[in-house]
Amino acid sequence: MNWKGVFPAVTTKFHEDGSLDMDLFFKNIDFQLESGVHGIILGGTLGESSVLSQEEKITLTKETVDYVAGKVPVILNIAEGATQDALFWAAKAKELGASGLMILPPMRYSADAREVVAYFKAVANSTDLPIMIYNNPVDYKTLVTIDMFAELADCTNIQAIKESTRDISNVTRMINRFGDRYQMLCGVDTLAMEELLMGAVGWVAGLVCAFPKETVTIFNLVNEGKIEEAREIYRWFLPLLELDIHPKLVQYIKLAEYHCGIGSEYVRAPRLTLVGEERERIEKIIKDGIAKRPNL
């Protein structure tokens, strides 16, 4: 598994009546692939996994794997409250042809360090799929510490970390402790260029759903050492990237997809589409960004 590159955490597309809109979903996937992304992540926060049925998740995974047809890896996110459910999805991902897994610590129950490590090990030992641990204590209230990663190091298929602690120096701490044992990917859009400069090899991105070309260009420029060129695009991008660090990131990013012509703003309850002053404010950020899009 090559974890280097831009991995969109794609949104799930719905019709107005709430049913899956696979045609629009694949329109967006086409645009991602044409823009040069390096993988696709299904079932994350942006994918509204918590409001999808088991059957819908299976459909989404199978059809995406078939549609992408090996052009890039397809990664399934696992965010479950029960270890047995996580094990089910690890096995199902393998069965459906997914290339790897992204895994959050146990949901809802606030597990301690011993329990979190046991949870990750149980999943890792049940499959040969490569795994990326999603470390996001800000939103999900569980910090996977460096000492916990030391305990997980003997699970060879735990290969990567989606670094979302919002502490840039954590990239350096991890590299100092483990060298290249774990591949570090930035999971916070507003810190992406900074973490890439500090040694992250990838970017699990949100606004890429609406602006894939710009996201991939920044990544490529940083890797080519063209820092000034990357910085110019990143400064333009930052007001849009800040939409990724809000509790309504799903609504905000889906509205951006809609204005870019590669998505719709339909979400599933309890989320609701934006109205009033909030909608006007977010639309202004999106429209200003589109109007000032850099010439790539």
TrEMBL record:
<feature type="binding site">
    <location>
        <position position="204"/>
    </location>
    <ligand>
        <name>pyruvate</name>
    </ligand>
</feature>
<protein>
    <submittedName>
        <fullName>Dihydrodipicolinate synthetase family protein</fullName>
    </submittedName>
</protein>
<dbReference type="InterPro" id="IPR002220">
    <property type="entry name" value="DapA-like"/>
</dbReference>
<keyword id="KW-0456">Lyase</keyword>
<dbReference type="GO" id="GO:0008840">
    <property type="term" value="F:4-hydroxy-tetrahydrodipicolinate synthase activity"/>
</dbReference>
<comment type="similarity">
    <text>Belongs to the DapA family.</text>
</comment>
<feature type="active site" description="Proton donor/acceptor">
    <location>
        <position position="134"/>
    </location>
</feature>
<dbReference type="InterPro" id="IPR013785">
    <property type="entry name" value="Aldolase_TIM"/>
</dbReference>
<dbReference type="Pfam" id="PF00701">
    <property type="entry name" value="DHDPS"/>
</dbReference>
<feature type="active site" description="Schiff-base intermediate with substrate">
    <location>
        <position position="162"/>
    </location>
</feature>
